[in-house]
Amino acid sequence: MRIFSGIQPTGRKHLGNYIGAIAQYISSQERGEGIFCIVDLHAITVAYDPAELRERLYDTTAILLAAGLDPERCILFRQSDVPEHTELTWLLCSVTELGRLQRMHQFRDKSIAQRELVSAGLLLYPVLQAADVLAYRADEVPVGEDQREHLELMRDVARRFNTRFGGGEEVLVVPEHRIPSVGARIMDLQDPARKMSTTGGSAQGTVYVLDEPREIEKKLKSAVTDSGSEVRSAPDKQGISNLIEILAAVRGVERTVIESEFSDARYGDFKAAVAAAVVAYLAPARERYEELRADDAALESILQQGALRAGAIASSTLLDVRTRMGVGPLDAASAPSTSGAADTVNG
Ligand code: AMP
Ligand code: TRP
Questions:
Q1: pLDDT in tens, 311-344
Q2: Is 147 in the pocket of ligand 2 (CB under 6 A)?
Q3: What is the distance between the alpha carbons of residues 291 and 278, in angstroms, rounded to a whole number?
């Protein structure tokens, strides 16, 4: 079983990222061959600062390692180090419907947020994401709920490729998403109608992985709740429902377990329990982070080793894809190589 996921090197990672995605990356190391990619090429589709991008990339690498990704047991790499991703993006464009890209929710939302330029990259973002996964013929993609639409497009692109160029074979694996049943969409603590997010959310409503314990407690204890008094999930109790979801995910239990445990509790006591659980949950990653982040050279070396291993897999897929599409010489395997991650990384 091959498991692939990507994460953006933007902003600071929050509790939603951790519960919805990062925790699943860690556990997938036990279940199969994990490949994890920090997607710097996705980050340049909106306004950004080049020097900051590089810093955030190392921040994200250190957070993933601190959370428990082990480069001995998985592949961790930077997207731009493996040029096959961009080549496959272009090739897949020929089996991607333009209208579908224009209708994607994320494209619409992010287009509205751009002040100066809605780039073509923003439109092609989901094709690059499809290429990320399909280049590795991954079986499973752990993500949060907000990536469902991107995963559907990716599956359709793979199917259309196989129909058009596969001659009945599954040349590109049609991947399954793995969206957790609890914690796939953590909401903002101050505005529980919106998802927790670095860009769209409120500062007080967003718990960051690297927040100090006191800060985490403050944010959770001041989380917005409703005027009722029952600790129970309901559509008109979004704040309490979100806190139940958080505690259930952190403890690895169903929501009903939390509801019965706190059936007689007051909101204040319940919030204090959630705060304590979240502090303990994030503490190991926060404690390991500083030391890992202090050593740029070590982070860079891990990423480059990862890129070598990733590049070997992706280049073999690309050979197959080019041949099937009639691009390049027929006997591409014997043609001289002029690109590839191995050359880039060593050179
Ligand atoms: P990003 O930082 O945008 O690359 O997101 C990384 C991962 O976190 C993706 O798999 C998202 O689906 C997931 N994610 C982002 N926000 C949330 C949230 N509020 N709740 C759960 N998962 C989330
Ligand atoms: N679009 C994803 C996000 O914003 C990040 C991503 C890029 C990704 N490539 C991927 C996720 C491949 C899963 C698989 O979170």
A1: 999 999 999 999 999 999 887 666 665 554 444 4
A2: yes
A3: 22
| Per-residue pLDDT reduced to its tens digit, 247-260 | 999 999 999 999 99
Q: Assign domain 2-183+295-345 one CATH number from 3.40.50.620, 3.40.50.300, 3.20.20.70, 2.160.10.10.
A: 3.40.50.620
- Is the domain defined by 213-293 classed in CATH 3.90.550.10? no
How far apart CA 210 and CA 220 sit, in angstroms, is 15
90: three-class secondary structure by DSSP: helix
Q: Decide whether any atom of ligand 1 lies within 6 Å of the 195 Cβ.
A: yes
201 lines ligand 1 (CB under 6 A): no
Residues in the chain predicted with pLDDT less than 70, given as ranges, are 11, 332-347
- In the reported structure, the alpha carbon of residue 237 is separated from the centroid of ligand 2 by a whole-number distance in angstroms of 30
| Torsion 341-9-51-72 (CA) sign | negative
